[in-house]
Amino acid sequence: MSMKHVVMAGAVMLAASAVAFAEPAGGTVSGKVTYEGTPAKMKPIDMSKEPSCAKMYTTPPVAETVVTGTGNSLADVVVYISAGAPDDAAPSTAAVFTQKGCRYIPHVLAFQVNQELKIVNEDQTSHNIHPLPKLNREWNKSQPPGTPAISEKYDKAEFIPVKCNVHPWMHGNFAVLKNSHYTITGDGGAFTLANLPPGKYTVTAWQESYGDQSQEVTISGSETKSVNFVFKAKPY
Amino acid sequence: MGKLLGVVLVVIALVSAYPILKNQYPLPEDISTHGHLIDEQLHDTMVEAGISFIGAQLVLAFFVWSFTGRKPGSPLKDLPGGARMLVIVAFVIVGLEVLALGAFGQKAWASVYFTPAKADSLQIQAQAEQFAFYFRYAGPDGKFGQIHPEKIDEGNQNYFGLDPENDVAARDDIVSGELVVPVNREIHLMLHGKDVGHSFFVRELRIQQDFVPGLDLSVHFTTTKIGKYEIVCTQLCGLGHYNMKAYLNVMSQADYDNWFKQQSAQ
Question: What is the pTM assigned to this prediction?
């Protein structure tokens, strides 16, 4: 074999291996979050003290503490890898939390440690957002209408309830997580965590009223493992 | 110059009294059964104070007028009885005035605050917190559930800390952000402060009562006119005090019964 052939063969092998490593196939964990029993009835929110928000609704919105869906599913459940994955650097895009109609949108916001959190006020009234962490630094900030977004970040992983000091019914949650393997269930309760390298993982599902549940799963290649969570509903 | 001052004093006194005499500051409409007593008291006080004010200004103007341009060396006259008599007379006049206002006003104040609510009055609990008012009705069972401060969960709408899981009386309690009452019925409003000092004020009702943390206070009143009136917090309670208000919704008995039934179904 001539030198030219050796170099060409080497180049082809390099290219092949580059293609193989460029897209790590990884395994997937997917499943559904459901409940059993009778969940508490969510009561409508009385916004009469803030007419500028109350008039935005034809029927009053209900509280979002437990959001149920078709097939006894639970929405707004954070499903994430709590052990077995290394910490990830925070992405450069910000996680956005919006105050609109005197409610927090989304009700549960998941983002990473040290990722920028942007808080926006789209209402005609002042809000005073007050997250209530136990590990991170506690702060509250006033935000009159038309003022720029508040920018903050958290340096410790934690589930943080959020309230508004001016409007007692406003309630939300921050899920500050250590890695990028997380998702929040939507209507139907389904979730998918993809791109997991081979290893042994703990998958945790967290619901603000029912607490959290964990299951262990092992990924060996690019298979899909099914993991389901069933929460016991509380009638009150 | 001095005489001019005397004239000016009289003019100022009359010009100040004119808008009040012409009732250019009318009171808000009165929708309660006891409100007229308070309005009469206000009116009487204005009249008494007004007469004293104009009288005092006229006396002052008279002395300024009379003793201006007094030639140096001319004898000074003393008031009969001297300074002592002057003080005694002032004491007696002002004292009687204040006593009279107190005696007549006692009817307006004591009848609201010192008499208990009637036994068949509608009991409603009002809770003031930073920065909203919430009102609790006993529900169809007629019993109020117990309050557990450690169970307060605002995000879940549990402002009073009720425990419906373990406390059956609490299950049907109605919690509302609006104070809804039937007209012509005595309301016994029990005031409970959750955190700091607040105050309940409805100007059309002529009722104002502070919430004092730790005290269970109450007021009672009967409304006479259907409509929606503003309840404002009149005790500085923090950064949201400017925005702390609720509405008093006075309805006919039929509308109130419908509202009650609708709330119980939730």
Answer: 0.82
